[in-house]
Amino acid sequence: MTEFNYHIPDYLEHQRFVEYITKMPSNDGPPIFGLHPNADLTFRLKESLEMINVLVDTQPKEGGGGSGLSREDQVKEKIEKELLPKLPQDFIILDVLDRLKVLRGPKGLVDSVTGRYDTVPLNIFLRQEIEWFQLILNIVRKTLVDMIDAIDGSISMTAEIVASIDAVFDFRVPYSW
Questions:
Q1: What are residue 11's phi and psi, to 5 degrees?
Q2: Are 166 and 61 in contact (CB under 8 A)?
Q3: CB atoms within 10 A of CB 136
């Protein structure tokens, strides 16, 4: 797409002003506003995702499926049979630390005093990522268990749990994750 040459016309005749205006593009690209060309792509992607979310949110949520199960029972079954079994086991931080002590990094980065590798920056980063991943696993597991318990009636159904159940039912990621 060729960029239009914007300028203030210095015509004296009205007709030439009209011709200049009719030659202007109907849609302007992001560079005209000082934005990167990818701004348009980002805008369109965000707009599409919002439209899809509106469509999913406005779907009827109450009708029974062909299986005869309620929406909550379908979610409970999906959590118990698909989601919870696929979650990895919790990390045992002491085992992680022991393995990091012997995990080699790039040559020459061993701690000269202790001879251990757990002080190598790459291994420190790995330990921090494992700790963050464990926090996420805890949140996901707790949310899934809370959804099952709330559906069973053993804990109160909060707004956050209802939103998580709706998200799982709609094949979306719950907000708390």
A1: -75, 155
A2: yes
A3: 10
Span 14-67, pLDDT tens digits: 999 999 999 888 888 888 888 888 998 899 999 999 998 888 778 776 655 556
Distance between CA atoms of 13 and 19, rounded to whole angstroms? 10
State phi, psi for 64 to the nearest 5 degrees.
-80, 145
- Tokens (6 digits) for 142: 């707790």
Number of C-alpha atoms within 13 angstroms, CB side, residue 100? 21
Residue type, position 43, single letter: F
Q: What is the distance between the alpha carbons of residues 32 and 96, in angstroms, rounded to a whole number?
A: 52
Contact in structure between 56 and 170 (CB atoms under 8 Å): yes
Q: Is the pTM above the cut of 0.85?
A: no
CA distance 37 to 29: 7
* Rounded Cα–Cα distance for residues 137 and 139 (Å): 5
Compute the chain's Rg from CA coordinates: 28
Q: How many CB atoms lie within 10 A of CB 125?
A: 10
The answer to whether 29 and 3 are in contact (CB under 8 A) is yes
* Domain layout of the chain by residue ranges: 10-58, 66-177
DSSP category for residue 25: -
How far apart (Å, rounded) are the C-alpha atoms in residues 175 and 139? 11
Please report where in the chains the tokens 């909550």 appear, as a residue. Answer: 72
Residue 148 CA to residue 168 CA, distance in Å, equals 12
